[in-house]
Amino acid sequence: MEVYKCISRFFPPRRYDERDQHIPQIENVLACEKGDLFDVLETEEDRKGKVWWAVRQLKGDSVGYIPAKYLKLDRRPVGKLLPEDYQSSRESSLKSLQGAKRQAHSSLATESRGRKDERCSD
Description:
Elements: E1 3-6, E2 15-16, E3 22-23, E4 37-40, H1 44-47, E5 52-57, E6 63-67, E7 71-75, H2 86-121
Antiparallel strand pairs: 1-4, 1-7, 2-3, 4-5, 5-6
């Protein structure tokens, strides 16, 4: 397991609706403070070229996305034994995150279609 450290404070972007009303933080995007530690859930090959990485925060076990530019390799433990279920728990965290991402994309598409329908009926 490679451990990455947050190099600067990061707060998730916020969305606003047409009336400029604040909508809560975008789902699955994690905030971090400088020094927070993360396990990156995707393989090095899978995350190559990606701006956002799927991560698990080591304190609190939160799973979500963080911009790659906020993370720096902290350490690669050598000889440290991982729990037997490490791989399966990592995979299940990544699957649940991907499912939430699909659901968010689906709801955004539905919202977008709804706005188009409202404009057309005016």
